[in-house]
Amino acid sequence: AIGMLVAHSIPFRAIRAGKQLSDSKGSSAAITTEAAITAVKRSMMGFLGPRDIFRNPEAIFRAFEGPGQLFSRLDRDGNLIGKPNSAASDASPFDLVLSRAGDDFAVMGMHFKIGLYEHQSAGASQAIIDLVNKNPTLLDAPAGGNGGDSISKIKIVAYEPAYGIIGDPAKMNPTTRQSADHSMAYIIATLLRKAIKIHASGTTPTWHNLMLSPMDYAPDAITNAETRAIMHKIEFVHGGDEYDARYPDGIPTSVVITDADGSTHDSGMVMYPAGHARNTTADLQALLDAKFHMLGGYVAEDPTPIIDRYRSLESKSAEVLQAINNIELPAAAKSFDG
Questions:
Q1: Rounded CA gap, 125 and 134, in Å?
Q2: Which of 120, 194, 217, 306 gives 177 a disulfide partner, CB atoms 3.0 to 4.6 angstroms apart?
Q3: Alpha-carbon distances, residue 100 vs 15, 38, 92, 182, 334 (angstroms)
Q4: Angstrom distance (rounded) from CA 207 to CA 276
């Protein structure tokens, strides 16, 4: 089943490349899962896929990693030229470990998104929140000016693949929600626009009140003039080996904001933003509860009963789990895209 899935459904970054992204970008995990279940069912009925997907010299993994081809080349008649490479004939470019027991599962080292944003932008988001709380005057509107005028430049330094995926210059002018949530400039500019508004009301900007929602990716939000003005102040650069070596252990990112007077405010390197498994300072449960209620509020005045259905999954019976998504929800009077 694994051979069948991997040989026929290898994901690349094409779903996240280009100016405007498709609906399937946000569904890639579900699409892969759907294909995996189909492969398992076929295998259970005796339909077999490739037996060796990692050592096969024609496998995609061998095109990028590990030993070269099994033989140097073929002559015009198809005869093998050169001696067999014993290492190439028997070596996998990496180890694949499938665990069925223990507690060292990859999910335990993952990252819960606090609100809606691309995973790679979490370090920059945390850096922005830290900076504006430490230097609230960055959010002030100068005399005769607007909120955001106190900031002249925002420099974001991060690692690959963050720089390549959400720092792509093509993402500097997103026109769809799919591309907006894969634009570092848009995400950070939206976060700052909300922070400026919250600060003006006399409230401290925090993850709880800056949490990006679906409406932050609505058509009118994507074209918001204040957001666009902030986007033009953002510079995104690759941090090189110093940053690359620290990913995926963390989400290494730093932000330097230059104010209107030319003074700089440096966040330093952020490794474990709120939501990351290795973060030890944020109240993750409270943040997730706030996120669940924010999203649940789109379908129910009081989403608590719906949220509670999904708590303590490990103690629920198979019968309850089979019906857990059977919920009657009212249809919205207007579509999200207007």
A1: 14
A2: 217
A3: 31, 21, 22, 34, 46
A4: 13
Give CA angle at 309 (304, 313), nearest 5°: 135
One-letter amino acid of 82: G
Please give the Cα distance from 59 to 150 (Å, whole number): 54
How far CA 318 is from CA of 46, 315, 325, in Å, comes to 27, 10, 13
CA 124 – CA 117 distance, rounded (Å): 11
- The residue ranges of DSSP E strands in the chain, in sequence order, are 73-74, 80-81, 151-158, 234-238, 254-259, 264-266
What is the bridge-based pairing of β-strands 80-81 and 254-259?
Answer: unpaired
The answer to whether 318 and 200 are in contact (CB under 8 A) is no
d(CA 166, CA 13): 12
> Model-level pTM?
0.80
Residues of the chain predicted below pLDDT 50: 68-74, 83-88
CB 270 within 8 A of CB 127: yes
**Do 194 and 205 form a contact (C-beta atoms < 8 A)?**
yes
User: Measured on CA atoms in the order 174, 179, 180, 182, is the torsion positive or negative?
Assistant: negative
Q: Give me 41's structure tokens.
A: 């069912």
Span 279-330, pLDDT tens digits:
999 999 999 999 999 999 988 889 999 999 999 999 999 999 999 999 988 7
> How is residue 313 annotated by DSSP?
G
Cα atoms in the 13 Å half-sphere on the side-chain side of 174: 32
